[in-house]
Amino acid sequence: MAHRDDEAFVFMDEPDGPAERPQARGWQVLLVDDEPDVHAATRLALKGMEIEGRTIEFSHAYSAAQAMELLSRRDDFAVALIDVVMGGHDEGLQLVRRIREELGRQAIRIILRTGQPGYAPEIDTIRQYDLNDYKTKSELTQVRLFTSLTMAIRSYAQIRRLESGRRGLEQILSATLELGKPMGMPAFVGGIMAQLRALLNVGAERPVCAAIRELDSPRCILAQASHEDSWAGMPLRDVPDERVRIRLQQTLDERRHCFEDGVGLFFSGRGQQDLAVFVDTPGPLSDLEQRLLAIFCGNIAIAFENLRLYLDINDLAYQDVLVRLPNRNAMVAAIDAQASGMDVVALVDLDNFSEINSILDDSYGDAVLLAVARKLRQAFPAETLVARLGGDLFGLYGPGAQVTSQHIAQVFAEPLEMAGGEPLRLSATAGLIRLKGNGLPGVAVLKNAGAALKQAKRFQRGKSMMFETAQADAARDRIQMLNRLRASFSAEHLFLNYQPFVHLGDGRVMGAECLLRWKTPEGLFIPPDRFIPLAEQSGLMIPIGEWVFRTALNWRKSLAGLVDDDFRVAVNVSHVQFAEPDFVHRLLGILDEIGIPGKQVEIELTESVAIGNIDVLARRLDELRARGVKVAMDDFGTGYSSLSVIQRLNLDRLKIDRSFVSGPQGGDDHFGIARTVIALARHLQVATIAEGIETSAQRLALQASGCEEGQGYLFSRPLDEAAFRQWLLDRRAAGG
Questions:
Q1: What pLDDT, on the 0 to 100 scale, is given for residue 589?
Q2: Contact (CB, 8 A) for 184 and 178
């Protein structure tokens, strides 16, 4: 005879009204069936039973729609007991699909029950749906129902533990990413405590806290969760809860896990830094739970052991190794945080610091940087961030009342005290920007401050300049223009014009200067004084300059028969081109490739070229002159050349700048400078040519002063190849 508990339970009436909910927190089970008797019988069969020490609490739905409404409002159901056949023959199966797919509830366990098994064959149904069990109602005796429900609840609990573990791991990962911030360590430990609370099923009402022991530092509470009194930062010996204090001290002293009267977990770190975590568990842990927890702690111990390494890496990432100040990364992060009252950023660049390194040595340069860092840190209050951004560039970020041009100037007003008491006087140039709550990211703020610094170094060296929006607009315009210039050069939209040189005495055409021109696809002409400096700064001038040489020399070759053999084409050479080590070699190679003699080529240098190494410049010019190439000094009188430089370079020609020619004639002071230059050139036995001649009076005055050649609108505007050829033909026809 079967045991009484194995008999199919009998459906009987239950009193009206909701069942009394037990005080303890129970497993939440949803009953879904369109027969009230089934609800009543299930409650009766499982009344008073416990699973894993917890009671069973039922919620009731009499249709799939009611079940969906309940499930959409609550996420604490562990198990759903669902009838297959309700309003429709597969309404229960469709409800399972909606629970999994629409609600995305994968943790809840499902037990299907049916009184009509033919509607859903058992094997196919279990294979298709994520089910814990599928039984006919006649099979579900009290024992079998309890067994099936127990297995489902245990499965649910395991899934939730895995989910909790995953959330804890995500907290650990998040904490690791936060290590660069001051709360990196507490956040990391907070993630450990949250994971332990989830894994050990510890409620929020029970205390969890961690204590740390570091070399030469007293033990203290590092982090705490769920306690009415805040212990964080408190020395461990002062913790008022004796049970917590003793367990943490024992764990640190014995350097092992302790599982008596609460759980004390031990984590050994780098550099004699140890961590202990106390968890107030509801009861003692089983042997299996202790072994599993030990495995878990072993994994976390590895992460904690590396924590100091991460913090060391963080120091490298956010601190300058030489001067022990925050670095660029730290300053960007601080600006991104936009702390209240911090509204001015300054970039401070030491003037002529490279000369200190080149004249003395790197070690002395390092000593200078250390002295500057020390002086800046002492000069500004602690709330102002003082950083070294790289090289000899320092950064300041603080309140506008502190970070000012006057304060920065005061720092460098007195000489630095170097080792041995030797004073060193330095000046610095600064660019400042006021944040004004604009929310710009730190990288953009430093970029704008850098724009102000560049302007200051260009116009107010040794002083400070505040950033203005117009500077950023100008910088953006330069970048856009440079991009367009690159594209135009690649698309062959640059071209050359030629302006003739004319002998002022007899009117013979002596040569022509090639002039680089840029016309955009929209038909806009960009002046050379706007795009050539950009090309020089970006390195684009090297390929452009080579193209200009090749094009101009090919043009000169095409004039054979139209001009005299000594007709020369003059090409302007940028100081950037001349600084290239192989400049002379490449130029002579183009001469050989095209096949024209050097005497038909003249290079025009600006006076700024002569600022560099005069000996190197002279040797290179001698190499060119040995092949017959002429050398002229362009825009003479507007730059830095001295008489000794002119003599040392053995120039062939001085070119008088148009600013000394195109003014009113006669007694004009500027024209007097032109006369002086001509007299100087005659004394040095150097030929002269004047540019910008616009009137016959200017031509006659220059000729009377002894100038041999000239160019300007009086003779011709710059012309393209075809127009220049026609100009030559017209002069020949006119007998000129």
A1: 93
A2: yes
